[in-house]
Design brief:
Blueprint (H helix, E strand, L loop, with lengths): L2 E7 L5 H12 L4 E3 L8 E8 L14 E9 L23 H9 L3 E5 L8 E2 L2 E2 H6 L9 E14 L2 E8 L5 H12 L3 E11 L2 E2 L6 H9 L19 E3 L2 H8 L4 E2 L8 E6 L3 E10 L2 E7 L12
Parallel strand pairs: 3-10, 12-14
Antiparallel strand pairs: 1-3, 2-3, 4-9, 4-10, 5-8, 6-7, 8-9, 10-11, 13-16, 14-15, 15-16
């Protein structure tokens, strides 16, 4: 089964936990995800199955949108509510106007310190493994981009927000740094990813919905139509002869897409067989071959 499935990740599970559950539900060993979510976080977690796991390389820099809540008054060692408090809680009252002004200072390309409990590697060792052993975590600031950061409302010591960020941005660090700047400490209380690349919550399915569909023999209905994937690349439907050449890794002429640099090549309406790169003129070489032999199409497709 080759496809892309959008799971609405529940809180309390790691992204790898979700991958393992989907492997069991679909009886499919080849399952991967397109963007890690912390256990605290919920929302859009795109999964790729079968040969389409090879598409993951195109999503490493995908833009993401989040909604969540920041709690002011104390910081934690993980920068979120799953961690241990770094000090005694303070009674604080922040204003919407104050946070609007502060949020503006985070917009654009900024230097950000990753959380000590993160997957950033230090001499080949993930930072969180060192942090769990209470060892020094000598992380360095990295450049990230925050494209939108709106404080939506304030309720006592909590503020709700929406943020649109480039890949590699830690929302936990944003919450922590806001607390540092105010002087009272803060951490991420909740986080929900609403968009990743071309995928959003409107098409996300719960693990329970996927399990029910699989038991009813309808799991394929849960998958995203493959022509919606990678919208930055135009589509072309190959003839049987051209598709056979592409499946064997041969370069082909695609005259109708002579101006495109990379294209999605389909056999029929639903079978994505390759991502091809233009060599010169109308000649394209299959950069990634996703189907080595024809897949029999159902009569209703």
């Amino acid at each position: 089964m080759n496809g892309v499935l959008i799971i609405d990740k529940p809180a309390g599970l790691t992204s790898h936990d979700v991958v393992n559950r989907v492997r069991r539900i679909l009886h499919q060993p080849a399952v991967g995800h397109l963007g890690t979510l912390d256990p605290l976080a919920t929302g859009v977690l795109p999964l790729v199955t079968g040969n389409l796991t090879r598409l993951a390389q195109f999503y490493t820099s995908s833009e993401k949108t989040y909604e969540g809540t920041i709690r002011f008054g104390f910081a934690t060692d993980t920068y979120d509510s799953d961690g241990e408090a770094s000090g005694a809680a303070q009674t604080v009252k922040v204003s919407l106007e104050q946070l609007h002004t502060l949020a503006k200072s985070f917009l654009g390309v900024i230097e950000q310190m990753p959380p000590p409990f993160s997957a950033k590697k230090i001499k080949g060792v993930p930072a969180y493994k060192l942090a769990r052993k209470h060892k020094d975590v000598p992380l360095k600031p990295v450049q990230v981009e925050i494209k939108e950061f709106d404080i939506l409302a304030v309720d006592g010591d909590k503020a709700s927000f929406r943020a649109r960020v480039a890949s590699g941005t830690y929302i936990r660090s944003v919450a922590h740094d806001m607390g540092q700047q105010i002087g009272c400490g803060a951490h991420l209380a909740s986080l929900r990813r609403t968009v990743l690349g071309e995928f959003d919550l409107g098409e996300a399915r719960t693990l329970e919905e996927l399990d029910a569909a699989a038991r009813a023999g309808q799991s394929e209905e849960m998958f995203i139509h493959p022509r919606r994937l990678l919208p930055q690349f135009p589509c072309v439907t190959a003839s049987d002869e051209t598709a056979a050449l592409i499946r064997s890794g041969r370069a082909v002429n695609l005259a109708e897409l002579s101006q495109a640099r990379q294209v999605k090549v389909f056999a029929g309406q639903r079978e994505l067989i390759a991502i091809a790169t233009r060599i010169a003129g109308t000649l394209f070489h299959p950069r990634i071959v996703l189907a080595s032999e024809p897949v029999r199409q159902a009569s209703n497709q």
